[in-house]
Write a structure and sequence with these properties.
The protein is an alpha+beta fold. About 30% of the residues lie in helices and about 20% in strands. It is built from 11 helices and 21 strands. Strands 9, 12, 13, 14, 17, 18, 19, 20 and 21 form a 9-stranded mixed β-sheet that branches. A 4-stranded antiparallel β-sheet has the order 5-4-7-8, with no helix packed on it. A hairpin with a 7-residue loop joins strand 12 and strand 13. Helix 1 packs antiparallel against helix 2 and helix 5 packs across helix 6. It is elongated and about 125 Å long. The N and C termini lie far apart (about 100 Å).
């Protein structure tokens, strides 16, 4: 306000006084403007931006669905995340000229739900030691028990003499005769074989051929396919037995639980046989077969006895016999008790699974999930 009053007084003095010097209008305006102008300075500073982290944290494990709709635990990062990480590392090398040393990061911790999902779906529970040795292909379960009783098996550095000891091959250190047992067990294998005549279903007898020798080519292909995976070869054995003269369907697997359940008489799994008979077959003999006979002190009765129509290329009569108990030589004893003689015997069905008509003698086929359900098994 004082500056304004001084400017007004000076302006009036210039116009009223005749003796005063008249200043130009432009100079007067600059004088007034300079009187009004004031300078004010502000000391403002800003913090520098925080540098962005170059390393990204790995994403947490995800539960995803595969092509069949089953839920699986994906613990590895997605492919897009890996590509972005590799690209950033490459850009950092080009800009800096030398890559920075990699920082050690702690292993990501999975949630309790993710660990529980993995343990329930993927990790097998601890199993009996004898069963683990048999599944790993060391020996049969009975022979594995003998090895354990002889003190030839150690678990975590201590000799184990109890076949029922629960072990986990992935965590426990197991040695048999000084050899380390593989951490991984072979996957379950289910095969259907068209057994030829002259082969037995048991193992260990040198004087007769075993049906397991028919799978030598399968084992070679399996070993070549799983080379470097650390998986031992599966130890195959038959589910039940067929005598040396009987042909047809027999199941071969390395799953002991499956074999015990399917072959046990209490499972009541029906088995169908086609018996080719020497000579004529009359109605009285069919009735005698259907009435059953006593085997090992137990009266065995077949579920079905039927005389099949004669075919032009087969001169001998054929009889279809369905049993469910599966006792030793049951069908042969039934036919023998009726006064008939068997020329050839073939098993064509177990449960609801029938021997494929195009499967040649000595050939095998892998069983699908539907075939296992037809056998009454759900894993």
């Amino acid at each position: 306000m004082a500056a304004i009053a001084a400017a007004a007084t000076a302006f009036s003095t210039l116009h009223l006084s005749r003796t005063s010097v008249v200043l130009p209008r432009l100079h007067l305006r600059s004088v007034i403007t300079s009187s009004f102008s004031t300078t004010t300075e502000f000391n403002i500073t800003f913090a520098p931006p925080k540098p962005k982290s170059q390393s990204q944290k790995p994403p947490p494990p995800e539960i995803v669905r595969d092509e069949k709709g089953n839920r699986n635990l994906r613990s590895t990062p997605p492919e897009g995340f890996l590509q972005n990480t590799r690209k950033k590392k490459k850009d950092g090398k080009n800009s800096a000229g030398k890559a920075k040393p990699r920082e050690l990061t702690a292993e990501p911790k999975y949630s309790k739900a993710a660990r529980r999902f993995y343990n329930e779906r993927f990790r097998e529970p601890p199993q009996r030691l004898a069963k683990v040795l048999a599944a790993a292909g060391v020996a049969s379960r009975r022979s594995s028990e003998e090895l354990i009783f002889q003190g030839k098996v150690t678990v975590n550095g201590s000799v184990c003499n109890t076949p029922q000891t629960k072990v986990d091959p992935g965590r426990d250190i197991i040695y048999v005769n000084g050899n380390r047992l593989a951490k991984k067990l072979p996957p379950k294998v289910y095969l259907a074989l068209n057994k030829p005549k002259g082969y037995i279903c048991s193992m260990g007898e040198k004087e007769t051929k075993s049906v397991i020798t028919l799978f030598d080519d399968f084992m070679k292909i399996w070993s070549k396919r799983n080379a470097g995976s650390g998986l031992p070869n599966p130890r195959l054995f038959t589910v039940g037995r067929l005598d040396v003269a009987t042909t047809g369907l027999i199941i071969v697997t390395n799953d002991g639980e499956f074999a015990n359940k399917v072959s046990h008489p209490s499972f009541n799994l029906s088995k169908e046989y086609i018996a080719t008979i020497n000579g004529e077959v009359n109605k009285r003999q069919l009735v005698a077969i259907s009435e059953g006979t006593v085997i090992d002190g137990v009266h065995c009765t077949p579920d079905l006895v039927e005389l099949l129509p004669q075919q032009p290329d087969i001169s001998r009569p054929r009889v279809r016999i369905v049993v469910h108990e599966g006792r030793n030589h049951e069908v042969r004893e039934l036919v023998k008790n009726a006064g008939l003689q068997i020329h050839a015997l073939k098993r064509v069905r177990i449960g609801n699974f029938r021997l494929p008509s195009d499967l040649g003698l000595g050939k095998h086929v892998e069983l699908t999930a539907a075939n296992l359900r037809a056998l009454g098994w759900s894993s």
